[in-house]
Design brief:
The protein has about 290 residues and is α/β, with parallel strands linked by helices. It is about 25% helix and about 30% strand. It is built from seven helices and 15 strands.
Length: about 290
């Protein structure tokens, strides 16, 4: 089973005040301090309602309050004149998503909203195309899981349904190649230097070694990430499903995770596709 999660972090509308402003709570890990003045789109049935996240301007705040941004101090402005008009446009429980453009930078760098985990889904899509006419010694299931950001429910259901012998999760991980990051404590992961193989108790050592051997054999660039605790990916629940599943995690380095503009490298995505293709098409895995 190959799995990349399809869900994303977003905001859930919890209250509409008398003036038609919407209050929200996060569904997934979102830092409130990045939200002021952001453009969002609210999904209401088959409609998309644009909105701007508002905050009291610094000119009208006491100095000691300027740096404090909480969800209680933010709202979404959709231009409604009152609560009745707002509730004609959206509903309590609707979700608001980042509205950001996809950008391409030099050096194969890309930026946009929800590369976590659209980068992983891109790996699966391109891998499926490469494997379309290949004869391989595996029954391979491609899974786009849901609810990873809020408890990994989709992966749990998929694993109990498919009952895989082996599972490889494809997600993003934190790149650490920008200011304020400390490689000694945060890890040493760079954009453009290959996909990332995790090591730790959430990972089958034998499976990880087989994947790494394939990278070395085929001169595929890769990096190593140490995860002494559960990885924070779908591998957590898949490893413990049924009688236990041999799991591994291949990640795409990502700067500024869970923000409107996450940044990745197309080279790292390509390395993950090539590594998985080599492992599935040529590789041999003996869990002993």
């Amino acid at each position: 089973m190959l799995v990349a999660h399809h869900d994303v972090v977003r905001l859930m509308i919890t209250y509409v005040d008398g003036n038609g402003f919407l209050y929200v709570k996060p569904a997934g890990g979102i830092d409130a301090s990045i939200l002021p003045a952001r453009k969002v789109v609210i999904r209401h049935g088959d409609k998309k309602v644009p909105g701007i996240i508002g905050k009291r301007p610094m000119h009208l705040m006491k100095e000691e309050s300027c740096a404090k941004v909480t969800y209680d101090s933010l709202w979404i402005d959709i231009g409604a004149k009152d609560k009745e008009e707002a509730l004609g446009m959206v509903s309590i429980g609707d979700y608001a998503y980042y509205d950001a453009e996809y950008e391409e930078f030099p050096n194969n760098i890309i930026a946009g909203n929800y590369l976590d985990d659209h980068a992983g889904l891109d790996v699966l899509l391109n891998l499926a195309k490469k494997l379309a006419n290949a004869v391989i010694p595996w029954d391979v299931y491609f899974v786009a899981s849901n609810h990873e950001e809020i408890g990994m429910r989709g992966a749990c259901v998929a694993a109990h349904t498919i009952k895989p012998d082996v599972c490889i999760c494809i997600d993003v991980t934190h790149a650490t190649d920008y200011p304020t990051m400390n490689p000694a404590s945060d890890g040493d992961i760079k954009l453009g230097e290959g996909c990332v193989l995790a090591k730790g108790p959430n990972i089958s050592p034998a499976l990880q070694r087989s994947i790494e051997d394939m990278a070395i054999l085929n001169n595929i660039q890769y990096q190593i990430e140490v995860s002494p605790y559960p990885t924070g990916t779908d591998a957590n629940v898949i490893q413990l499903s049924g009688d236990g599943v041999e799991t591994a995690v291949i990640s795409i380095p990502c700067r500024y995770m869970h923000t409107p503009y996450e940044v990745c490298s197309k080279k790292d995505i390509e390395s993950a596709v090539n590594l998985l293709y080599g492992f599935l098409y040529e590789g041999k895995y003996d869990e002993k």
